[in-house]
Amino acid sequence: MKFVREPVVILNTLSAILGLVVSLGFTGLTAEQAGVIVALVSAILGGIAAAMTRPIAPQAFTAIVAAGATAVAAFGYEVSQETVGAINTLALAVLTLLTRVQVTPSKDQVPTGPTGV
């Protein structure tokens, strides 16, 4: 199952897709509402990904930075909904690429050899 082998990439991609949907304006949300939703989803999915990988630190760092960047964009500055989504997507893409080689699934559930005769 690919999800078990690449939880960081899958979960961060889902979070980035949410950021893209927000940035394209498919929702009727204000920038603040979009920021809260995107930051929460980034934090939750990042936490799940961190729990599924070892060591936890690189993915936890990615989740904190992505959620933090989104929250700062939404609440610290006067930016549009599109900018909030773009910041989240960029942060997740860059950090996922940087941390990908530093993490592995916490439990490899794919058989590596023959299981019986």
Low-confidence sequence ranges = none
Percent range for helical residues?
55-70%
Strand order of the largest sheet: 1-2
Bulk shape: elongated
* Beginning-to-end CA distance, first to last residue: 23 Å
Largest sheet: 2 strands, antiparallel
Helix/strand class:
mainly alpha
What's the Cα radius of gyration?
16 Å
Total helix count? 5
User: What portion of residues belong to β-strands?
Assistant: under 5%
Number of strands: 2
- Integer average pLDDT: 76
N-to-C order of helices and strands:
HHHEHHE
If you had to describe this structure to a student in words, what would you say it looks like?
There is one protein chain. The chain is mainly alpha-helical and 117 residues long. The protein contains five helices and two strands. The protein has helices at 2-5, 7-23, 31-51, 56-75, 81-99, and strands spanning 53-54, 104-105. It has a two-stranded antiparallel sheet. The longest helix has 21 residues, at 31-51.
